[in-house]
Every structure is written in structure tokens, then in C-alpha cells.
Amino acid sequence: MSFDAKSIAETVFRQESGRILATLIRISGSFDRAEEAMQEAFASALASWPELGIPQNPAAWITTAAHRKLIDQSRREKVRDEKQDSLRYEIENLTTSNSDESDEAFMHFPDDRLRLIFTCCHPALKPEAQVSLTLKTLCGLTTPELAKAFLIPEATVAQRIVRAKRKIDEAGIPYVVPSADRLPERLASVQAVIYLIFNEGYIATTGDRLIRTDLCGEAIRLARLLCELLPGEPENQGLLALVLLHDSRRDARVSEAGDLIPLEEQDRSLWHSGQIYEGLQLVEQALRAGAVGPFQLQAAIAAVHAQAKTPGETDWPQIAALYGELMRRYPSAVVSLNQAVAIAMSEGLEKGLTLMDNLDAAELESYHLYHSARAEILRRMGRRNEAIQEYERALPLTTNAVEQRYLRRRIDELNRTL
Amino acid sequence: MRYMFLIYSQETDEPLSDDEIKRVRAGHKAVMEDAGRKGILLGVERLKRTSTATTVRMKAGLPLTIDGPFAETKEQLAGYYILECKDLDEAIEWSKRIPTVCRGNEGCIEIRPVDDLPKLNEL
């Protein structure tokens, strides 16, 4: 029985802690107080569930218990210090009708998690702090888990989170859903954080593994949550589609030995068809709304790749056109590089290479994918020595050991074809 | 919550064009009037150029007086506002309206929450 209580508590924590915390932060006005109360409530659950049995709705039980702890805490503070503050005022109002019914009413604020997302991803916080805080509060990742996921010391994670919470408090970052006129800008910031988490999982910047499925999974979960909470925003669907479509290839991207397998060499039967199906539907649904954005366009590109049964069937003209559209609306050096690759594949290698030569090299010179893309085209054109040189330029620019092995493999292959 | 808006601008030797002067003045006028009407304007000042600045630096416990601003940067502190805002989001909205005298619509505003001073008898 006690084992059951523990595993159920763990499941509730994993699945519901974001929701519970979001509500407690609204009530208490403080991340720290809310976290403390939630932890105490989980401790009470572990102590009482084995004897009293598992409650019908464990998450509601935890929220109610944590809410009571907040009230107790506030009463203790009141005795200690008679000065008024807003928290106490609110809690006094709440305690006048302290029945289970009123507790129940507290839990039904679908906005709470949205408030939490917007606060954690506030642009006034550093991007790495936004990422850590989002994963910690909304996904329930612990500090050691975060440290492991990003390969940084636990002390660094802890410090990032402490500083972010202090800034929220001292600089007055509000716990609100932004008003309609500010929503697009703020939503872009939330989407960027989710995509950053996904990319860190998908192509880990350091370490000896290419993919960290845990981070990809959390990013998908957050993208799904954002869709659920703000379904009227097609970019949310675009983001979810994009991460699902990329993630669908996870098992085909890495060999058993842990080596990178490029798209055209992947065993496409390993792609997850369920995720592809969902991704394709989302792209279609999003584009129908008629408010195109960068995530929808990138998802549309991923969708074209996903629909090709073999590399030869890839509709490169369509991909080139989509990159053209992306370039027209949201120009960047990386997009122009991808457009050049798509043109090389659809209109001729020579043309693609010329386009790449004319790109703004200053921005791309230190980008390993620029050199490996050039190398790839030169290799296909049979310009062996130049290809080797470009692969060698790419090599020191990536810190991921798996990508480095892939580049070395290409160099070795070319050297052998002498 | 009180916020200070530190205005950083580029100082150039070329005088601003009449149009630019008009744009900047109209921008400040609108902010001052609007904030004044709402009763949240707690302070606003313009500073003279950094060529008039003097820095007194303590070195080994002794004051050293030197010409010039604290730091030579591309953008210099040119003035400030203090506004009472509900939260940082409201402060960010105000900062978007405060003009900075920089070419090409650039420049920046640093937003800092103002701390409470302890009472004089507690100092």
C-alpha cells in the first residue's frame, strides 16, 4: 500500500505539479511560498495516504492541502507581524468561507497555467533562466534533473532559478496573461522558449549523445499545453506540428552505435507515423486559419519531408518555395542557407552553390552547418578536395561529439575514394 | 511600484534637424502630459552633455577628480523619468513611448525599480 501511495504521488507530481503550482502562485503571490506549500502537501500525502487510502482526486487533495498550508503560514506570519499585506488580505477573504466547496472553486482557473507560462517566459528574464524556470515550474523537473539535461552544475541551475524568481519579485513582473495587444509579442517569447527546449533536446549542443528525448518530450508537452490553452493562435499549432514532425524521426536519426544518420540515409520505416499524422493535420489546420507565421512555415517544410516515402520522392521545389516565403517574411542568414540547399536540390547543384557563395558569409562563417551544407553539395558535384576542406572547416565549429563523428566519417569516405 | 527610466542616447556633434527636435519634444510632451494627468509622474529631468561631466573616483580612500563621464560608451545617460506603475509590463509600455535622441530610431531605455530608502532615523 505504501508503495502505491508513493508511486501515485510521484505520478501526480509529474503530471499535475505545474497546474497545482500555478494555482498556488496566484493565491500566494509568491513562487517560493507556493513551492514550499506544495512540497509540504506532498509530504503530508506520503504520510497519510498509506493509512487513509488514496483520495479520489489526488491532485485536488494536494492543492487543498497546500492551500491550507498557505493559510496556516499566513496566520503564523500575522501573529508575528501585524502589518497588512495583499496576500494576507486575500487569504482573510478566503478563510471566511473555509469549506471544501470554496477550495474546489480555487482549482478551476484554466488561466493559471497560462499566467505561469507568460511569467516564466517573460522577456525581461534571461533566456536560460526562462528555460530553467519553465521546466522547473510547469514540467516539474527537479534541479538535479535540469542540471543533467543541460550538462551544467546543479549550483548553476539553482542560482539561475533563484535569480529569476528574485527578479520576478523585485522588478514587478506580473502574474497575468498579457492583454490582447501585447499577446503576439509575448506569445512569440513563449514559443521561442519551447522551441529552444526542443532544439536543445534534438541537437544537444554538447555531450556525446545527439538527442535528449527527455527535453524533446517536455517541449512537446509544453507546445501541446499552449495549443490547449490558446487554441485560436495558429502559430501554436505550427509549433506543435513542427516539434512533432521533427521528433517523429528520432529513432531513425541515430544508429545503434549512436552515430548521426542524415535524412536521406534514414530508414523511413522507423519514423513514427502517429506523430507524422498528427503533425500533418495540425499544419493543415493552422494554415487554414490564414495567419501565417514562422513556425507554420517551418512545420510545412517538415511536413513535405515527412510525406516523402523515399528521399527521391521529396518535393524539393515545394520546399524551396516555402523557404522563399520564409525568407520574404522573416529573413535570416540561416533561412537563406536552407533556401540555397533546397534550390540546389531542385534546380541544380551549381545554382545552389552559387547562391551559397553569395550569402553573407560573415554571419555564417562560424556556423558548422553552413560548411557542412557546402561540403555536401561539393561532394555531390564530385569536387572531392573542396568538399573535404569544407567538412574540415565544419569540424571544430560543433561541440557535439556525434556530429563531429559524422563529419569525420564523411572526410574518411572521401579520402578513401581517391 | 516606482520605476526609473534611464534614457540612453547617442551624443553627436552635428545638431539635430528641426524635424528630429520636433519629434523628440512632441514625444516627451505627450509622455509628461499623459503621465501627469494620470498622477503617476514622480520625476523627470534632462541632463547636460557628457562633455560637462566630472567623475570623482575614490582610489585607496582618496577622492580623485577627473574630467568626463563614468564610462565612455556609444550611448550615454541623457535623462530620466520616474513613474509609478502597476508592474513591469506597464513600465515597459511607457518606455516604448519615451523618445531617445538617437539616429535611425535607435537608443534605449533602462527600466529600474526604485527601492525604498530606510527612514532617516534608521540610517
Descriptive overview:
The complex is a heterodimer of chains A (418) and B (123). Chain A is 72% helix and 0% strand. Chain A has 418 residues and is an all-alpha fold. Among the domains of chain A are: 2-109; 366-418, no CATH class. Chain B is of the alpha+beta class and 123 residues long. Chain B has two helices and six strands; from the N terminus they run E-H-E-E-E-E-H-E. In chain B, the strands form two sheets. In chain B, strands 2-5-1-6 form a four-stranded antiparallel β-sheet, covered by helices on one side. In chain B, strands 3-4 form a two-stranded antiparallel ribbon. In chain B, a hairpin with a 2-residue loop joins strand 3 (54-59) and strand 4 (62-67). The two termini of chain B are 22 Å apart. The mean pLDDT of chain B is 89. Chain A binds chain B through residues 122, 124, 170-174, 176, 178, 182, and chain B through 1, 3, 85-89, 91-93, 111, 113.
Q: Characteristics of this structure?
A:
heterodimer; A: 418 residues; 22 helices; 72% helix; B: 123 residues; alpha+beta; four-stranded antiparallel beta sheet; two-stranded antiparallel ribbon; 2 helices
What is the CATH T-level topology of chain B? Alpha-Beta Plaits
Please give the oligomerization state of what you see. Answer: heterodimer
**What is the CATH class name of chain B?**
Alpha Beta
Which structural class best describes the helix and strand composition of chain B?
alpha+beta
Spans of chain B of at least 5 consecutive residues whose pLDDT stays below 50 are: none
- Gyration radius of chain A (Cα, Å) is 25 Å
Fold topology:
The complex is a heterodimer of chains A (418) and B (123).
Chain A (H helix, E strand, L loop, with lengths): L1 H27 L2 H22 L5 H23 L5 H10 L4 H7 L4 H10 L6 H11 L5 H8 L3 H17 L12 H20 L10 H17 L4 H14 L2 H4 L19 H16 L5 H14 L8 H14 L3 H15 L1 H9 L3 H4 L3 H13 L3 H11 L6 H16 L2
Helix pairs in contact in A: 1-2, 1-3, 1-6, 2-3, 3-4, 7-9, 7-10, 8-9, 10-11, 10-12, 11-12, 12-14, 12-15, 14-15, 15-16, 16-17, 17-18, 18-20, 20-21, 21-22
Chain B lengths: L1 E8 L8 H20 L3 E6 L7 E6 L2 E6 L8 E9 L3 H10 L10 E6 L10
